[in-house]
């Protein structure tokens, strides 16, 4: 008899799900739906929201197939930014399933979500322990899934609870389980370094495992751990060395070489044992990967010393064949090793200049960029022109490279051109122009060419470097100043260069002013600069203001210059200064105001002077700039000099008695000036002054101290003359004793009360400096004021290292790097850690210092006890544990606990 009621839709779905027939959307259907609903962002967002709502309902289903399917779709939706931490409990349910496919989905979702919620890991600990336990119902593959999932969700607390189970799995009879346990312990060691300290021997024992895969996993884990903290593995160097000799597995050998790279950095003694074996391995193997890792181990493991030419040549001989390989990746990493070897000693790579020049023509821009760093090591007087010519040719937009007899066009990026320009300047200026060999005419042509080709780079750093090099030649090579000035005038006359290389113009203008005596027509140069001033940036204007004054000073003191011409040039410069002293830039405003006032005085003196030029232009103005000739000073010497100065900031200049006496004297003369207008006051002050100067201690008020008018006048003249002769006193009566205008100074020194300084004033010679017999290639060395110190050098360096907060870091956080394996806490017989005796002594000293000065009578009443708390692991004696928890109440209200002392049960008193 058939039923009156047919089966519902849900019943039919439940009956068909065990056979793999689902009516809900699977992951495949979800992906298809996303692809068909991505026409607009709004449409895609609506579709994803609907799917997420369906997953919220499906994940609550008691059917594990539906729950697993919902969790799988949630893991995919998380990539679109949807949070799935709300489903952590449902994920934990899927993880507990006995079905392997469902368990794998659960661990996959846990790896994506559990790291956000540490509380859920407390619930997952027992489940992980169960899955990691091998029995008949727990298959090996399920244990592998649990171990893989554990590595992604481990935390310090979970690592502490699960490490013992993982160490037990190292002794499993199945190599697959041992291998998985070894790899899972890597993340556990990072989060809980104490487990590595306590179980290091058991873990290292896997290096002698019978299965090669387990050995490979153990070596790989130790290699990665040594990157964070290599110290605990140095003691196993003999075992690792034997493995390097005996094993023939290239993969394990590579990992061992990487491991020894880290170990040799902290244990230099390994070099003498390892270096011969690594060289032998490098020379006899045919595997390129082993050859590369052998060289990398020698170089980065600090086994190659500066004077070890034999080892360096063996490594470079192998690298020479690698840099010519067809694989661009191999060429690049070989070029990197070339750079590291050259960084140790540039003499190692000097004979490989043809190899480096070949790398500069490589089809790969990254290889070219790395080869640029090698140019400083291979460049010499013989090949510098070849190297520079090769680099100059690369200032093109498209370069053609021959590859397999075919021309391949590659685009040259702007940043590469900037590095090329910097490299050219570096190799030419290296060691005080040693590579140039005195051919500064050629170097000036190169600088000119760089200025022309660098216009399109729009890089201020290149502009600054070009200007600095022109300035350095002017300062350090006296014989080339004329030629350098001609090049600078030629370049600064170009409007394009002024616009695109402003820093070059800044240094050029400084050179014009500093070496203006080498220029014949300073008035033409002044006119040119004034015409271009409107287009110049503020930093160039700052250098231009004093340069114009220097140029005018030179021009005005040249022979056969008419007074009208000088006034015309001076008027133009004054007009420029007047325009700039209203600038919003403080430096421009300050300089323009100072020189404006100075030049106005010069203009007034020219108007008032009938014959010839006034002293203000012929002597005063040139003496501002021509007192000394500037010399090259080594970089950072100013900071060295400032640090070497010692200032006594404690000793006063005057004693209290001297200071009091000085204050009385100052106040006395101030009163004298204030009351000197009145005759009666003058008489009174004068009488007091006379008595003060005679230092009369016994003064009677009945005595008459009145003075005649002649005596007062003589006293006044004497006082004013003393003030006038005192260089530290500012004279307020300049209208009577000095002329306000410097232009009225007479040539006769006897007619002037302001006498000219006795020091000789250096006058500008009308002869050019090029007439002096300089050596053709004389290069002035940098002046070193004070010897450099390591601390100062560290201060002057600019560090470009990125901090962790500067960007996104994908590295796993760990506690292994800062963990100290040297401090081991031994466990005593009663389950308590033994206390370091030095720590007790430090606490005793600290407590004794606190009691200095206290009343000895109250010492017994205020007795204190040193308490050192240490974390316990397991205590066998419960009574001792309860005893340590008991606390006594001090009469003053302080809680006192008995100390932990393994030597004596009685507490220590201070």
UniProtKB/TrEMBL annotation:
The keyword Transport is assigned to this record: yes
Sequence segments annotated as region (Disordered): 680-758, 786-809, 851-910
Pfam family, one: Adaptin_N
Keywords: Cytoplasmic vesicle, Golgi apparatus, Membrane, Protein transport, Repeat, Transport
Localization annotation: Cytoplasmic vesicle, Clathrin-coated vesicle membrane; Golgi apparatus
The Clathrin/coatomer adaptor adaptin-like N-terminal domain, residue ranges: 49-600
Topology term for the membrane: Peripheral membrane protein
Compositionally biased residues, Basic and acidic residues: 691-706, 715-725
Gene3D superfamilies: Leucine-rich Repeat Variant
The UniProt record lists the keyword Glycoprotein: no
Bias kind Polar residues: ranges: 789-809
GO terms, biological process: Golgi to vacuole transport; protein targeting to vacuole
CC per GO annotation: AP-3 adaptor complex; clathrin-coated vesicle membrane; endosome membrane; Golgi apparatus
Task performed by this protein: Part of the AP-3 complex, an adaptor-related complex which is not clathrin-associated. The complex is associated with the Golgi region as well as more peripheral structures. It facilitates the budding of vesicles from the Golgi membrane.
Similarity comment text for this entry: Belongs to the adaptor complexes large subunit family.
Description of how the protein assembles with itself and partners: Adaptor protein complex 3 (AP-3) is a heterotetramer.
Name listed for the protein in its UniProt record: AP-3 complex subunit delta
Organism in which the protein naturally occurs: Kluyveromyces dobzhanskii CBS 2104
């Amino acid at each position: 008899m058939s039923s009156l009621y047919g089966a519902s839709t849900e019943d039919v779905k439940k009956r068909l799900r065990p056979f793999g027939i689902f009516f809900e959307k699977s992951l495949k259907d979800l992906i298809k739906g996303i692809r068909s609903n991505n026409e607009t962002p709004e449409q895609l967002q609506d579709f994803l929201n609907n799917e997420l709502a369906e997953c919220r309902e499906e994940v609550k289903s008691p059917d594990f197939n539906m729950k697993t399917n919902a969790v799988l779709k949630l893991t995919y939706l998380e990539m679109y930014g949807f949070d799935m931490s709300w489903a952590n409990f449902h994920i934990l349910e899927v993880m507990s399933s006995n079905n392997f496919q469902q368990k794998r989905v659960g661990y996959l979702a846990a790896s994506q979500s559990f790291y956000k919620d540490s509380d859920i890991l407390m619930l997952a600990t027992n489940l992980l322990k169960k899955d990691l336990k091998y029995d008949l119902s727990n298959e090996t593959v399920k244990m592998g899934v649990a171990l893989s999932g554990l590595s992604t969700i481990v935390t310090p607390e979970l690592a502490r609870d699960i490490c013992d189970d993982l160490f037990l799995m190292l002794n499993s009879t199945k190599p697959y389980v041992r291998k998985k346990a070894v790899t899972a312990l890597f993340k556990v060691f990072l989060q809980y370094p104490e487990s590595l300290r306590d179980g290091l021997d058991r873990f290292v024992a896997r290096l002698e495992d019978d299965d090669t895969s387990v050995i490979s996993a153990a070596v790989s884990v130790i290699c990665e751990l040594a990157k964070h903290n290599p110290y605990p593995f140095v003691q196993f160097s003999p075992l690792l060395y034997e493995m390097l000799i005996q094993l023939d597995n290239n993969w394990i050998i590579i990992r061992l070489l990487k491991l020894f790279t880290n170990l040799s950095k902290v244990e230099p003694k390994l070099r003498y044992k390892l270096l011969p074996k690594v060289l032998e391995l490098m020379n006899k193997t045919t595997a390129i990967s082993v050859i590369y890792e052998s060289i990398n181990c020698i170089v980065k493991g600090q086994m190659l010393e500066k004077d070890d030419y034999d080892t360096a040549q063996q490594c470079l001989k192998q690298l020479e064949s690698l840099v010519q390989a067809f694989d661009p990746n191999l060429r690049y990493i070989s070029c990197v090793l070339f750079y590291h070897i050259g960084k140790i000693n540039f003499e190692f790579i000097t004979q490989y200049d043809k190899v480096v020049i070949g790398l500069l023509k490589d089809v790969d821009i990254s290889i070219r960029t790395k080869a640029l760093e090698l140019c400083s090591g291979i460049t010499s007087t013989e090949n510098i022109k070849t190297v520079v010519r090769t680099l100059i040719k690369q200032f093109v937009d498209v370069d053609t490279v021959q590859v397999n007899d075919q021309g391949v066009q590659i685009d040259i990026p702007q940043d590469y051109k900037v590095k090329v320009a910097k490299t050219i300047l570096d190799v030419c200026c290296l060691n005080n122009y040693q590579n140039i060999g005195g051919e500064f005419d050629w170097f000036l042509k190169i600088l000119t060419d760089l200025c022309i080709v660098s216009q399109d780079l729009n890089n201020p750093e290149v502009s600054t470097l070009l200007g600095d090099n022109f300035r350095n030649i002017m300062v350090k090579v006296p014989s080339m100043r004329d030629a350098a000035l001609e090049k600078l005038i030629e370049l600064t006359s170009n409007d394009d260069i002024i616009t695109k290389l402003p820093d070059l113009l800044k240094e050029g203008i400084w050179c014009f002013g500093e070496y203006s005596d080498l220029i014949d027509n300073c008035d033409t140069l002044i006119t040119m600069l004034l015409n271009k001033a409107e287009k110049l940036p503020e930093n160039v204007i700052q250098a231009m203001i004093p340069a114009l004054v220097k140029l005018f000073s030179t021009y005005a003191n040249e022979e056969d210059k008419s007074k009208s011409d000088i006034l015309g040039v001076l008027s133009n410069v004054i007009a420029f200064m007047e325009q700039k002293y209203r600038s919003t830039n403080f430096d421009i405003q300050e300089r323009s105001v100072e020189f404006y006032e100075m030049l106005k005085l010069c203009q007034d003196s020219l108007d008032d002077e009938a014959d010839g030029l006034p002293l203000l232009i012929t002597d005063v103005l040139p003496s501002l700039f021509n007192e000394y000739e500037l010399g090259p000073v080594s970089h950072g010497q100013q900071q060295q000099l400032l640090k070497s100065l010692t200032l006594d900031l404690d000793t006063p200049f005057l004693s209290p008695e001297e200071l009091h006496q000085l204050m009385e004297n100052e106040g006395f003369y101030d009163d004298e000036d204030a009351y000197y207008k009145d005759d009666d006051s003058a008489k009174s002050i004068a009488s007091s002054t006379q008595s003060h100067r005679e230092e009369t201690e016994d003064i009677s008020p009945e005595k008459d101290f009145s003075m005649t008018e002649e005596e007062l006048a003589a006293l006044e003249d004497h006082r004013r003359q003393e003030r006038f002769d005192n260089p530290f006193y500012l004279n307020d009566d300049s209208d009577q004793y000095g002329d306000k205008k410097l232009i009225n100074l007479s040539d006769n020194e006897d007619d002037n009360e302001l006498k000219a300084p006795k020091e000789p004033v250096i006058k500008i010679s009308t002869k050019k400096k090029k007439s002096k017999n300089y050596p053709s290639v004389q290069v002035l060395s940098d002046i070193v004021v004070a010897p450099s110190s390591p601390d100062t050098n560290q201060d002057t360096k600019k560090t470009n290292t990125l901090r962790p907060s500067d960007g996104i870091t994908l590295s796993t956080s760990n506690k292994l790097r800062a963990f100290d394996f040297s401090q081991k806490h031994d466990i005593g017989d009663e389950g308590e850690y033994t206390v370091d005796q030095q720590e007790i002594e430090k606490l005793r000293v600290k407590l004794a210092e606190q009691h200095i000065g206290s009343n000895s009578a109250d010492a017994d009443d205020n007795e204190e006890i040193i308490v050192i708390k240490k974390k316990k692991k397991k205590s066998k004696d419960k009574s001792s544990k309860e005893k340590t928890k008991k606390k006594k109440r001090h009469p003053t209200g302080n809680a006192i606990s008995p100390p932990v002392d393994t030597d004596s049960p009685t507490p220590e008193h201070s």
